[in-house]
Amino acid sequence: MSDTRRRVKVYTLNEDRQWDDRGTGHVSSTFVERLKGISLLVRAESDGSLLLESKISPNTAYQKQQDTLIVWSEADNYDLALSFQEKAGCDEIWEKICQVQGKDPALDITQDPIDESEEERFEEIPETSHLVELPPCELSRLEEIADLVTSVLSSPIRREKLALALMSEGYIKKLLGLFRVCEDLDNREGLHHLYEIVRGVLFLNKAALFEVMFSDDSIMDVVGCLEYDPALVQPKRHREFLTKTAKFKEVIPITDSELRQKIHQTYRVQYIQDIILPTPSVFEENFLSTLTSFIFFNKVEIVSMLQEDEKFLTEVFAQLTDEATEDSKRRELVNFVKEFCAFSQTLQPQNRDAFFKTLANLGILPALEIVMGMDDLQVRAAATDIFSYLVEFSPSMVREFVMQEPQQTDDDVLLINVVIKQMICDSDPELGGAVQLMGLLRTLIDPENMLASTNKTEKTEFLSFFYKYCMHVLTAPLLANTAHDKISKDNFQTAQLLALILELLTFCVEHHTYHIKTYIMNKDLLRRVLVLMNSKHTFLALCALRFMRRIIGLKDEYYNRYIIKGNLFEPVINALLDNGTRYNLLNSAIIELFEFIKVEDVKSLIAHIVDNFYKALESIEYVQTFKGLKGRYEQEKDRQSQRLNRYRRDARSLDEDEELWFNDDDDDDEGEAVEKSRMEDDFSDSYGKYMEAKKVSVTAGAANGANGANNNGKAAVIPPASPSVTPNNSSTSSVKTVALPATPVVKTALVGLVDYPDDEDEEEEEEEEEQSPRKRPRLSS
C-alpha cells in the first residue's frame, strides 16, 4: 500500500463546522462481510490501524471537489472527507463509488439527500429524467432566471438538477457576460436580478460551480454582481477595495505562479464569505458549508506549498534579522509571518507540529527577540501575535530557547525580559497588550506544562533561570513605586500595571513554593506589596490583599514567622479600620482573611493578632470573627497551662517498675511503724532505678500503653487511710488523678505512662530542671 496514488488524509467536520484531521493513510475499496457491501477502508501509514471503515451506501450523496477531494455525510451532522495526494487516486476511488451507486463518473456528485416527502414525490421519476430547463441567457429573461434560481433552493433534488444544468451549458460564463452589458448600460433592474441569481448560485453549495465562479477570469465579475443588492440605495464598491485598497505585497517574490494564484483566490473568496454575503439565517446556515470547505482546503494547500519552499522562508528570516533591512520592509515581513501563522491554525495537530518546528529551525525566536524590541508599535503588536502562536503551540520550545540565551547575551536583551519590558511599557491606557503578554508569561512559568525527563527536570532548571535573570525585571516597577513605605505614583495606568504584576506574583506563590518563598524573604516583598493597601484604587488594594491571602493560605510556618517578625498585619488592619463601617468588597476580603486564620486555627498568627491588635478590633461586633480569634487564643492559653500543670499534679500514674518496688516494700514491711523511715532511707536508690526505667518508657510510649492495659487487673495494697481514687474523664487517656496522703499511696490499677505526642520535648526539659511532684513522695514528720 505504498502507492502514493492511494495516499489520503481523513477529515471529519466538527460542531464548529471546522475540519478535523483524523490521520494519514492509504485507501482501498473492499467487500466487508460484516457490513455486507463494498466499503472504503483507510489504514494509517504509521501503524496500519484502521482510520476509516465506511460502507458505500446506494443512497449516500458523494461529492468530488477540486479534483483531489471526496466529501460525504454518513449521518446527521457527521461529514467526512478524503483528501488525496494525487488526482489519479481520487479518480480511481470516485469511479468505484459511482460503480457501486450506478452513476456516471463524469458527474461531481452522485445524488443529494432528500427528505421523505420529496422522496415520495420523485420516486416515479427515472434517473435519466431531464435537467431543469433554463431560459435563454438574455437580458429580457433575467427576471425569469432569478425566479427559477430562488425557487429551487428549498428542494435538494431541484438544486442538484439546476447545478447540473448550469454546468452543462456553460451558463455561468454567459450570465457574467450579461453583467458586463448591464453595467455598461447602467441597467439597475437587470443588475438587481443578477445579484439574486449569483447569490442563489452560491447557495446551491456546489464545488464544481465554485471552481468556475472563483477562477481568475470570473471572480471579479461575481463580486461585481454582488455589489448590486436591491436593498441598498447605492451599490457597494467591493471591486474597488479588492483592486486598489487591498494590495498584495510580496515581501519576497513568489516564483510559483500556482501558489500566487491560490493566495489571491483564497483572499477574495474569504472576502466574499465574510464581507459581501449576508450572515445566513438558521435555515440557510448549511447552504455555504462547501464554501467554508473550499477556503479551508485552500489555506492548507497554501501553507504546505510555502513550507516546502525552503529558499523562500530562509530568505524571509534572513531579511527579518538583518540589521540593514529598512523598517518598512521589516514591518511587511513581520506581518507576512503573522498571516502565515494565522493560516497554520487551519492545520491539524501533527501538521501544525511540523509547521512550527520548521519555523523554529529557521530562527523564528531570535527574529522575534529583535522585532519585539523595536519602537514601531505595529511591528511590536504583530510580533506579540506571533509569539502568542508559538507559546500556545509549545511553551517548552520557547523555554528551551531562552535558557540558552545567558551564555550568549546580557540580561537586558533576553527574550523573556524583552516581553516583560514590553508589558511594563505598554502605552495603551487600557493595557490591552500588557494583559495579553501577562497571559503568555503565566503560561511560560506554569509548572503544569513543564516536562520532566530522566536526565533533567525542566521545572527546576527554568524556574532557577527565571528567578535569577528575569524576576528582578518583573518586580522593578513594584519596588520602585513603594520605596520608603509610600506609593510614589498612584494614577490609574500605574495601578493597572501593578495589579497585573501582582497577579503574576500571586500565581508564583501558588505554584512555585521554594523559589518565590526565597525571593519574598530576601526582598522583603510582602512588606512592599502591602504598601499598596493605601492606594486610592480599591482594585489595587484588593490585589495586594489577595497576594497576602495566598501566602497565609499555604499555612507555612516560615511565612508565618516572617509576617509576625515584620508586623505585616498592621497595614491590613489599618485598611480595615480606615474603611470604617462601609460594607464593601475590601471589608469582606479582609474579614475573610481573618476568618480563614480562625477556622484553620493558625496558632502563631492568632496569638500575634490577639496580643498586638485585639484592642483595636474588639469593637467590631457585626461579625464574630475577632471574638472567635480571642476565644481560640484563650483556649490555647488554657491548654498550654494544663500541659504545664500535668507534671505538677498531686497524683500520677506509676509505671510497672515503680509499682513492683512499692509492692516488694509493702510485702516486707506491711503494718510496721518503721515504713516512713525506710522510705526516707531507700528513696534515693529506688528513685534512681525508676528514672532508668522512665527513660526506656519515654522511648517506647506505645509499648508502655500496652503494658498498662495488660496490667489493669493487678491489685495493689492500699493502706486503710488512703483516699478514694478519682478517675479522669478524658476519653483519650487512662491516666487517673489521685490526692496524695501523708503516707505513700499506690493506685488500684497499674497503668503505663501515656505518651503525649506534643509533650516529649517538654517532658525531657522538665525532667532535667526538677523532679515532678508526681514523682516525689511527700514524707510526714
TrEMBL record:
Pfam family name, one: EVH1_PP4R3
Gene Ontology BP annotations: DNA damage response
GO cellular component, one term: protein phosphatase 4 complex
Chain residue ranges for the region called Disordered: 659-680, 702-736, 752-781
Regions of compositional bias (Acidic residues) in chain numbering: 659-672, 756-770
Parts forming coiled coils: 630-657
Extent of Low complexity compositional bias: 702-716, 723-735
Signal peptide: none
Keywords: Coiled coil
Every Serine/threonine-protein phosphatase 4 regulatory subunit 3-like central domain range: 144-635
Family matches, as PANTHER family: ATP SYNTHASE GAMMA-RELATED (PTHR23318), SERINE_THREONINE-PROTEIN PHOSPHATASE 4 REGULATORY SUBUNIT 3B (PTHR23318:SF18)
Annotated function: Regulatory subunit of serine/threonine-protein phosphatase 4.
Name the UniProt record assigns to this protein: Serine/threonine-protein phosphatase 4 regulatory subunit 3
Organism (species): Cottoperca gobio
Gene for this chain: ppp4r3b
